[in-house]
Design a protein that fits this description.
About 10% of the residues lie in helices and about 45% in strands. It is mostly beta strands and about 90 residues long. The protein has a single domain, classed as Hypothetical protein (Archaeosine Trna-guanine Transglycosylase, Chain: A, domain 4), CATH 2.30.130.30.
Length: about 90
């Protein structure tokens, strides 16, 4: 299990904090896996700095972009997610 620390812009951080957003779209440059932990660190883009607020979750689902969806009928439903990206399901850490 890995623990990932990632930047999260204030508007999205607040949605996650309120429980309205329980997923995160990321570039899959960290090889995210189910059961890894992820800490979202709030980033204020107007000030260009971290605010100090953090939220930690367990990754409960990972939907990965496909590499060759043009030629594989089984991947047609996932055409909207490009290769190299992942949508992560976020679950509370017990």
């Amino acid at each position: 299990m890995n623990h990932h620390h990632v930047k999260c812009w204030t508007q999205y951080f607040n949605d996650v904090d309120r429980g309205e957003k329980r997923f995160d779209l990321r570039k899959n440059d960290r090889d995210y896996k189910v059961d890894d932990q992820i800490t979202l660190q709030e980033w204020d883009p107007t000030r260009g700095e971290y605010t100090g607020r953090r939220l930690t979750f367990r990754i409960c689902y990972a939907l990965r972009g496909v590499t060759d969806w043009e030629n594989d009928a089984a991947t047609i439903p996932m055409r909207g997610l490009r290769a190299g990206y992942v949508i992560l399901g976020l679950a509370e850490v017990p």
